[in-house]
Design goal:
The complex is a heterodimer of chains A (95) and B (496).
Chain A: H1 5-14, H2 21-38, H3 73-77, E1 83-84, E2 87-88
Helix pairs in contact in A: 1-2
Chain B: H1 4-7, H2 12-20, H3 26-39, E1 46-49, H4 51-66, E2 77-81, H5 108-115, E3 119-124, H6 163-170, E4 176-181, H7 187-193, E5 196-199, E6 219-224, H8 227-237, E7 267-271, H9 281-296, E8 300-304, H10 312-327, H11 345-356, H12 359-372, H13 378-398, E9 404-408, H14 424-428, H15 435-439, E10 444-451, E11 457-463, H16 469-483
Parallel strand pairs in B: 2-3, 2-4, 7-8, 7-9
Antiparallel strand pairs in B: 1-3, 4-6, 5-6, 5-10, 9-11, 10-11
Classes of the chains: A mainly alpha (95), B alpha/beta (496).
């Protein structure tokens, strides 16, 4: 399927990526090329085959539902571009 | 004491023996390899060198040895792909968006290495977020392959994404390095650089503390100059980790003990689908030669079919970008790394991500976002997951008849640095032989096996059933000894 500039701009918005007008053009060509190559999967008969979500046959482990981690606010905030006390600082969201 | 140059080019096993005989110390090794890094600076193999930390770790290692506490990698210098979080050491994933990030924790795999006594020389360069097959996508500039074509000075691509790790090992700047492999990111650069690269079974190594690309595919693995060294390293790296629920809780064998060199009684599958259009005759010839070597080592050759092979790459290029678009949503300029614009939150997100991610990463986030978006999810993502099951079933059926599968690692020799950048699909085709085993979660290894007509290294790949690493190493060591590969890269850290 060919992706025109409008669709590419919509996906970029969903992905929170700022893309310049000239890059939109290039990207729409590249993505269209990749998608048309991917579309060869349409010829595969997948009837009766469940989606594979885990490659290794294993049961996830269970453990006691207790707190095992925490109290690391300083570590968690250590790399924040902007922080105040124990909070991440972002531009004002609510008017 | 051995001279500094004598220590460059030794294998991990030789370093282990040399230290235990008192020929040199961990500090001698660390200093020699700090110097080695300077000698091969032009390769751009490191994003961050950590000489002070290397010396500190080596001194501590020598102190442990004095007390007879000797780990499996005691005093061995290793380079770490910059996708592994290392405490207090910048970790970038070769991306601008992680600039300034210093993890406050250590990845489980690197923690295992340090517990076994290993010494960190630095963080290896790579394709940005492990997305690429050339190392051209690194924010810090591309790694060069230490090999050159005969009579040609032009720089050659090291492959990717673990290109820095492979180049540093090939140039003897370190005896070993760790990489990660999502669709071939350990095996393809290993083949291009003439070194051994091994991807274990999905679940063998903990993914905790590895910057995530595609979570259902990512695995850590060793890059070394010998099969024995890869076996030594994997025994240390692997193991269950409560912090990664997909790491499997089964015993990790001493892989080194599996290197018996005998192929007697083993059946080696040769898949007809790995003969692709346009593959150079020299690759086909090397593959046939490899099969013959294993035959003469006592193996039986069996023709097999993996009919869904041709769908592996398109399947991969739905699943991996889908997972990546979700994993990379965390880079928002709020929690760590780059932040641009303070206008409003939406603009901040878009500007930070639009500038902080490189072209290939954005391309994959876009594909991933598209195939997961409303109306397309079933047609792309669910369909790809169902084809993935068919690809895995191909291998299950093949392994009813054979013990191990032999294929080329890559469909061609290393290309000129900078080539293929204008054609994403041509670049993706690099991984045509490595992606199927990744989708099936299987262990696979690339062994340097010969030279192309241009004098560049070529690799052969062995694939084993899940958790069949011991047998895989055994077959790989047979292949290695038959191939008798003699490395002769142009750019080397020492005199060898």
């Amino acid at each position: 399927m060919a992706l025109d500039k409008e669709i590419v701009a919509r996906i970029a918005k969903l992905a929170r990526l700022e893309i310049t007008e000239s890059d939109l053009e290039v990207m729409s060509q590249e993505l269209s090329q990749i998608l048309s190559w991917i579309e060869q999967l349409e010829e595969v008969n997948i009837e009766g085959f469940e989606p594979m979500t885990s490659v290794v046959k294993m049961d996830l482990k269970v453990r006691e539902d207790v707190v095992t981690d925490g109290d690391q606010a300083d570590d968690i905030l250590a790399n924040a571009p902007e922080r105040k006390d124990h909070f991440f600082v972002v531009p004002k969201v609510i008017e | 004491m051995a001279g500094s140059d004598d220590m460059i080019g030794l294998s991990i096993a030789e370093m282990r023996d040399g230290m235990s005989l008192g020929e040199f110390t961990a500090l001698n090794l660390a200093e020699a390899h700090i110097c080695a890094a300077k000698n091969v600076k032009e390769l751009c193999g490191y994003v961050t060198e950590t000489p002070d930390q290397a010396k500190e770790m080596a001194v501590a290692s020598d102190a442990r040895r004095a007390k007879n506490e000797v780990g499996a990698l005691e005093g061995v210098p290793l380079a770490i792909k910059d996708l592994f979080c290392t405490k207090n050491v910048p970790t970038t994933a070769a991306s601008q968006i992680l600039s300034g990030f210093r993890p406050t924790y250590e990845s489980s795999v690197t923690a295992n290495l340090w517990r076994a006594g290993a010494v960190m020389t630095g963080k290896a360069n790579m394709d940005e977020f492990a997305m690429g097959s050339s190392n051209m996508t690194s924010y810090f500039g591309p790694v060069q392959n230490p090999w050159r074509r005969e009579g040609d000075e032009q720089a050659v691509a090291p492959g990717g994404s673990s290109g820095g790790s492979a180049a540093l090992v090939a140039a003897s700047a370190v005896p070993g390095a760790i990489g990660t492999d999502t669709g071939g990111s350990i095996r393809q650069p290993a083949a291009f650089c003439g070194v051994v690269g091994m991807k274990p079974t999905y679940g063998r190594c903990s993914r905790w503390g590895i910057i995530a690309f595609a979570s259902s595919l990512d695995q850590a693995g060793p890059i070394t100059r010998t099969v024995q060294d890869a076996a030594i390293m994997l025994s240390v790296m692997a193991g269950h980790d409560p912090k990664d629920s997909t790491s499997v809780d089964i015993a990790v064998p001493e892989y080194e003990a599996a290197l018996t060199g005998s192929m007697r009684g083993l059946k080696v599958g040769i898949p007809s689908e790995y003969r692709v259009d346009g593959m150079p005759g020299e690759i086909e010839k090397l593959w046939a030669e490899g099969a013959d070597w294993l035959l003469r080592s006592g193996a039986e050759l069996v023709d097999i079919s993996l009919p869904y092979t041709k769908y592996a790459l398109p399947t991969y290029y739905i699943i991996a970008p889908a997972e990546a678009s979700s994993n990379l949503a965390r880079y928002d300029g709020v929690k760590y790394g780059l932040r641009l614009s303070n206008d409003d939150l939406e603009t901040q997100y878009a500007k930070t991500r639009g500038t902080g991610f490189g072209a290939e990463v954005k391309r994959r986030i876009m594909i991933g976002t598209y195939v997961l978006s409303a109306g397309y999810y079933d047609a792309y993502y669910l369909r790809a997951q169902r084809v993935r099951r068919l690809i895995a079933r191909d291998f299950e059926q093949a392994f009813e008849k054979v013990d191990v599968i032999l294929t080329p690692t890559a469909p061609h020799e290393a290309f000129t640095l900078g080539d293929k950048m204008d054609d994403p699909v041509a670049m993706y085709l690099n991984d045509v032989f490595t992606v199927p085993a990744s989708l099936a979660g299987l262990p696979a290894i690339s062994v340097p096996s010969g030279l192309s007509a241009n004098g560049l290294p070529l690799g052969l790949q062995l694939i084993a059933p899940a958790f069949g690493e011991s047998m895989l190493f055994c077959a790989a060591s047979s292949l290695e000894s038959c191939a008798g590969f003699v490395p002769r890269p142009t750019i080397v850290a020492g005199p060898n």
